[in-house]
Design goal:
Length: about 950
């Protein structure tokens, strides 16, 4: 988006133009939306008032924004060294005949407050000063500047102000005051320091002036400027400005949504010079002629293409702008995107054509009827159905295609639609169709309200339901057969809707002693249940109704009462069904005499259950709602020593250790109140003679048949032996921790000894090596002429061996330090480290031809220093073993193996035989001769130490003369 600063003249015209354009454009939009005939002076009057208010606000802002001339402050008089304080100096007498100085009159008229302080910054009276205005702080004389002025300053400004006072600089502060009526007023204090002839500070002298009007005008100006910027910035319309040559000079950011109108190339061009436009084509020729007349224009509609080639329709409005001399200075205006409106109009036209085609070619029989019962339109399908051409049916009476009775009934229904009683209806009626046949049809009619220029009509859809009627007749015959099967069923079967019996068969009437076929209809099913079982059955039916996913009722033996009062036993079951279009329940009642034998089996099962419960080693118990024990098995006495019969009726908490009682009580309360479905916890249980025993409790709520919590049940498992073992284990762990601390101290001492040994090795071995190398160099330099070629070769080999020994000592010390260096894991970008190392290698050997590929942004949690050591050794090996290649290749990447990230450094160098891969990471083991490639054989051992410290592993794969790949993992 591009925003160019507008000229001052156009900026002053921006707000009034926007308000005027909004007021003038709104009636046009309303007229376009509601029709050209709706526009009137009454509807446009509010918008014209808004436009006039915009012009007035612009003129006012222009007047307010003009800078006011500020007169320069008069220099303050200086006091003479050694003179009395300024506050005590009497006014200088004027010579006779000389009039009084006019500045005092000016001060009195202006209501300014002249003030003065001494060297201690205390206010002192000013002789012959006018009466101070009411806005100044009261009782200022004798009080210090810190007491009167500083407390009323903002804290951050007060600090800077006190610094100015400390260095005796000029001061200017503005105080916010309130009048007696609560009005906010502003007092401005300005002062300058006073010095004597010796340069000694004597105080301050200045003027206090009320600046309320100026402060309010400044605040209003800022708010008005904010409104202007907000109006332009957040307006959905784009704002633009043109100079006298009709070239764009400024375009707001909002215009960026208007077909790239705010692009960089739009500035400096005319509207019809933009890409894709021509001044000789419409609508530009007429628009240019209007602009030459310097007239306002509105709703200039044109089309442009955005950068994606899509058509964007724009509507622009503008007014001419003149400078202070009345000379034409350009145009300013707004641009609105009306693409959605144009697209909607085109879409409406397409939809009308589509719906017309759908009406004509629809496979359904569709037509339109007038209010005087005549066909207005029929589609091809309806014309073919009625056996007449569409042209012949248009205008024909509706009575011709149906009987007189059906036509009269339809006319009455359509009359009700016209009165607003209904808006549509459907009915089954017979139509005269092709071949003079009478077919049953479903006629669906809906009222189409009329408009200003069109009367109401009716849309009708005629559907042939002759086959459906035949199917219904067949279905009725089938229903009769099923009704006979229901009636003759040997099981008592009832159909209930909303809990009342709707249909019963002969077997159910016999079961309940009903003589009449309709004697059971209308009776509530629950009223037939015995009063003792009625509450249970009601709860079961309520739960069944609340759970739509439950398809049926499980069989349940219940007692019922026949109509003659006799009690019967029956097993009730039921399933959901739909009957006469309503949800219903189909009940089946069976004789339960066979259950009498099952009761004996149940008693035997209970006896078996009791034997099993009593033989369990765990304590099984039950409590009531108050927490009193209601059941205990024999394991209670075996574990606690208390008699179970005497313990029943006592609270379970009475047998809990005092320290655990509150915790156990909390769990039992949560179970009873339904907060927990199962509670598992441990506590100590009192015993008769063996002290406390640890038990593990598993407790669940105990519910009745209505799913109400009536107590709790659970088990208590004796875990005293396990607790004792755990205590022994903790004691053993403490002992092991103590041993580990001792062993750790010993290892630290060994490390310190090893570090001392390393220092000794590095110091004691390097000294003789340096001596050997030094004396060999002296012999080579001083006695070289006396030695033959063999002697000089021997000296060269001595020096090479000593230098190799020095490097070997350094590598051994670095390898030892890797195991003692403290690790600090952090998120490390391995790709950046590899790039840095390869850059260093290129600087060491810039003539190498090498291709490098580093996978970016490989991040791992590692020690930055250690992982750099490992990567540097791997990359230096790759650099070294590819030195004989014309074009070397080195790659660093990562891959996923077994859900673990594996990093790899590969090359196309000399490679090695995998037969010797087991010795690859051992110190001093080399797979290539020293004459082929230099090195000490410590690098890969260092890499393995670093990777092991990161809890990872490292391995290699290679083929001789085909390169090598080194893989490693890091524990994250």
């Amino acid at each position: 988006m591009l925003f160019r600063p507008a000229s001052p003249l156009l900026r002053r015209a921006a707000l009034p133009f926007l308000l005027a354009a909004g007021g003038a454009y709104a009636p046009v939009v309303l007229a376009a939306a509601g029709g050209a005939g709706d526009f009137s002076i009454q509807t446009s009057l509010p918008y014209l008032l808004v436009a006039g208010g915009g012009l007035a606000a612009g003129l006012l802002l222009g007047r307010i924004s003009r800078p006011r001339p500020v007169p320069p402050p008069a220099p303050a008089p200086l006091s003479v060294s050694g003179a009395p304080p300024l506050s005590a100096m009497p006014p200088r007498p004027m010579p006779p005949g000389v009039p009084t100085t006019p500045w005092r009159d000016f001060v009195e008229i202006a209501s300014d407050w002249p003030w003065e302080t001494d060297a201690t910054l205390r206010f002192v009276p000013v002789p012959d000063a006018p009466t101070p205005p009411s806005i100044i702080p009261p009782d200022t004389i004798g009080r210090s500047w810190e007491e009167v002025i500083v407390p009323e300053l903002p804290p951050d400004f007060a600090i800077a102000h006190q610094e100015s006072l400390g260095r005796h600089g000029p001061i200017a502060v503005t105080l916010t005051r309130r009048s007696a009526t609560g009005e906010v007023r502003y007092l401005e204090l300005r002062g300058r320091p006073i010095f004597d002839s010796a340069g000694q500070f004597q105080g301050y002298r200045g003027i206090g002036r009320e600046v309320t009007d100026r402060a309010r005008l400044s605040a209003n100006l800022e708010r008005n400027e904010e409104r202007i910027h907000a109006l332009i910035a957040y307006s959905t319309d784009g704002y633009w400005e043109q100079d006298a040559n009709l070239r764009y000079t400024a375009i707001t950011a909002s215009s960026g949504h208007l077909a790239d109108l705010a692009a960089e190339d739009a500035i400096g061009n005319r509207r019809w010079e933009l890409p894709g436009e021509s001044p000789d084509e419409a609508p530009w020729a007429e628009h240019i002629a209007q602009l030459k007349q310097i007239e306002p224009f509105s709703n200039l509609v044109f089309c442009r293409r955005d950068r994606n080639g899509r058509a964007i329709w724009l509507s622009e409005s503008g007014i001419p702008v003149f400078d202070n001399r009345g000379v034409f200075a350009g145009y300013c205006g707004t641009t609105r995107n009306i693409t959605d409106r144009v697209v909607a109009r085109e879409q409406l036209q397409r939809d009308e054509a589509l719906f017309r085609a759908l009406f004509e070619h629809a496979p359904a029989n569709v037509g339109r009827i007038s209010v005087d019962d005549r066909w207005l339109q029929v589609n091809a399908a309806l014309a073919a159905f009625l056996g007449q051409p569409a042209e012949a049916l248009a205008g024909a009476a509706l009575d011709a295609v149906m009987s007189t009775e059906d036509a009269a009934a339809g006319k009455a229904l359509r009359a009700r639609c016209l009165t607003g009683e209904i808006d549509h209806y459907s009915r089954d009626v017979r139509y005269h169709c092709a071949n003079d046949s009478m077919l049953w049809c479903r006629e669906s009619v809906r009222l189409i309200p009329g408009r200003d220029d069109t009367p109401p009509s009716f849309a009708v859809v005629v559907e042939d339901i002759s086959a459906v009627r035949d199917t219904l007749d067949t279905r009725r015959a089938g229903e009769e057969r099923y009704r006979q099967l229901f009636e003759l069923s040997p099981e008592a079967t009832l159909v209930c809707i909303d809990g009342r019996i709707h249909l019963s068969n002969a077997a159910s009437r016999r079961l309940f002693a009903a003589d009449d076929t309709r004697a059971l209809e209308g009776i509530e099913m629950l009223n037939l249940v015995h009063p003792d079982d009625r509450a249970m059955e009601a709860a079961r039916l309520q739960q069944f109704a609340a759970n739509p996913e439950q398809t049926g009722l499980a069989p349940l033996p219940l007692r019922y009462q026949r109509l003659d009062g006799e009690c019967i036993n029956a097993e009730a079951t039921g399933v959901r069904m739909r009957f006469d279009g309503q949800p219903a329940v189909l009940y089946v009642l069976r004789d339960v005499a066979r259950w009498l034998s099952a009761e004996q089996v149940l008693r035997e099962s209970r006896a078996m259950y009791r034997d099993v419960v009593e033989s369990v080693n765990e304590i099984l118990f039950q409590t009531d709602g108050e927490g009193r024990v209601t059941f205990l098995n024999r394991a209670w006495r075996h574990t606690t020593g208390f008699d179970g019969r005497l313990s029943i009726g006592q609270s379970l908490l009475d047998f809990v250790a005092d320290e655990d009682r509150s915790r156990v009580e909390q769990h039992l309360r949560s179970i009873r109140e339904g907060y927990e479905d199962i509670a598992q916890f441990e506590f100590r249980l009192r015993t008769h003679s063996e002290g406390l025993r640890w038990v593990e409790a598993t407790i669940r709520p105990l519910r009745d048949t209505y799913d109400h919590v009536v107590g709790s049940s659970g088990t208590l498992d004796d875990i005293t032996a396990r607790k004792e073992a755990e205590q022994s284990q903790r004691n053993l762990n403490l002992e092991l921790e103590a041993r580990v601390r001792v062993r750790t101290a010993e290892l630290e001492a060994s490390n310190r000894e090893l570090e001392a040994f390393s220092y000794s090795v590095s110091h004691d071995l390097r000294a003789p090596l340096r001596a050997i190398d030094g004396f060999a160099q002296i012999v080579a330099e001083d006695y070289a002429p006396r030695l033959d070629e063999t002697g000089r070769e021997y000296l060269h080999r001595i020096r090479i061996a000593t230098q190799k020994m020095a490097r070997l000592i350094d590598d051994l010390i670095d390898l030892a330090r890797l195991t003692r260096q403290a690790m600090k894991r952090e998120q490390v970008n391995l790709s950046q480290i590899v790039e840095q190392i390869l850059t260093e290698l290129r600087q060491e050997d810039p003539e190498r031809a090498i291709e490098i590929h580093v996978e970016p942004n490989l991040v791992a949690a590692a020690d930055r220093a250690l992982i750099r050591v490992a990567l540097e050794n791997l990359l230096r090996n790759a650099w070294k073993f590819t030195s004989r290649r014309d074009v070397a290749q080195i790659r660093f990447h990562a891959e996923m193996r077994d859900r673990q990230i594996v990093y790899c450094v590969s090359d196309n160098g000399a490679g090695f035989d995998m037969t010797f891969a087991s010795k690859l990471f051992l110190p001093f083991h080399r797979l290539h001769g020293i004459s082929e490639f230099a090195g000490t054989g410590i690098g890969l051992a260092t890499v393995q130490r670093v990777i092991q410290r990161h809890e990872g592993r490292v391995w290699a794969q290679s083929t001789p003369d085909q390169g090598a790949s080194f893989f490693f993992t890091l524990c994250h």
